[in-house]
């Protein structure tokens, strides 16, 4: 990790800044002069970042193989709902710097709605246009309204939708700059690290403050669930980004807090305002941003820019794995799939399916495996029947046993007494031959690209566990390849603190390296209790295994068809009896981590109980 610090230099006085342009101005004109004086100072490192990457960028192609020579494509992503008023002037400076460097080839993507102050970023730029910049050359984009419903926090949904928008673009971007509040860069960075797009983009995180500073430094009474989620997204983005631009005080905080950080950190000093700089708004007026926060960025111009110009680009990402995609859209369910690279080694995945009394749905699940874009020779299926006794289920099992895949022995059907999900999934894993395991519920269906995408992402990222969003399907009929309006469940990933209260990790329909599954000793085998997947993924995260979410919904999650819990106990009993048993199961890894500290264990139980009884 390279940390670039500012050189010692005196801050300009009021009269010296912009040749004394503050003198004799009205409040509004003084504000405009201030913005103009800051426009180059605020984020000058971005200019040098472009220079650093220019040699490499001139030799590569972007998107549809259009050459990038001279003009650079730059995207600035601004979440209007979460942008602090104090940062609006910073975006003016960023706009001027980037526009000058990329010869007008700048796109600004606005997500969310204007915040509580009602200050539109575009309106702010129009009120105080940067000197020497023609705003008419800027291309404005607004994140399209989605027809999907997301079962997630608003911040997570916006980040996911931003990734989808980026993946749909025909042309790529050399530089993508994200305002970090809310963690907007989180899913795009996950996708890039998994080889699912944005490989040609350098991603910059603008992080003037860490979200967790407030509550860890005693300025806030605890944290909300949304804040915990956004904190995880911000910390993860700071690790995955190529460059983080932050203040020296925030850098000290995140360093002491133990963050893993990007390969390049650009630091600007925190400075205090003097009395001459306070009355810029005029008598009785107020600025549309926090002046002290704006001036804390003053010394960005003092960075040793020659160090950036000569710095090596961040190390290359891990090469992709067995198979690739021509472009991310193919991985999102559009027609076509990527070609396999010559010489790639075959990777076998074992699909583990537990069945109980749902023969018709089992047929759909197995047919979805048959339709995978991954070559059939790379797929093994183990079906474990968990004590089905109905004539319909037994007839279905006899039917599939005659399929060529089962007759050949490549796929296996195991008839076992009812022991419930954890035990039956472990039984399937014991017969697996693949390097990877994928657990598929008997009532769900894979999209055709699912296994190929997961294996590609596993090799590109090195993750030991990959979960994914799903799209919910309320019918017993086979789901379509895609649907323009669905409800999507969007897991967050390895946010251990959030995982105490809700399953942020992902469900059992996930890919896991077989050696990791064996080391973790698989699922626990409690009968008639759910949340075995939540418990396993929590245990894996707490033990340091890498769990990631791929930002693509790769399977259909069936609703309303009666899972094992509803068949064995009844829906009313689940709500009244099983709820506490389920949640007692999923916090066991946390209680085990706190072994020997009973007071902390009781506090954890109290926090969980208060959350569910609120």
Automatic annotation (TrEMBL):
<dbReference type="InterPro" id="IPR001173">
    <property type="entry name" value="Glyco_trans_2-like"/>
</dbReference>
<protein>
    <recommendedName>
        <fullName>Glycosyltransferase 2-like domain-containing protein</fullName>
    </recommendedName>
</protein>
<dbReference type="InterPro" id="IPR029044">
    <property type="entry name" value="Nucleotide-diphossugar_trans"/>
</dbReference>
<feature type="compositionally biased region" description="Low complexity">
    <location>
        <begin position="329"/>
        <end position="341"/>
    </location>
</feature>
<feature type="region of interest" description="Disordered">
    <location>
        <begin position="306"/>
        <end position="341"/>
    </location>
</feature>
<dbReference type="Pfam" id="PF00535">
    <property type="entry name" value="Glycos_transf_2"/>
</dbReference>
<feature type="domain" description="Glycosyltransferase 2-like">
    <location>
        <begin position="350"/>
        <end position="466"/>
    </location>
</feature>
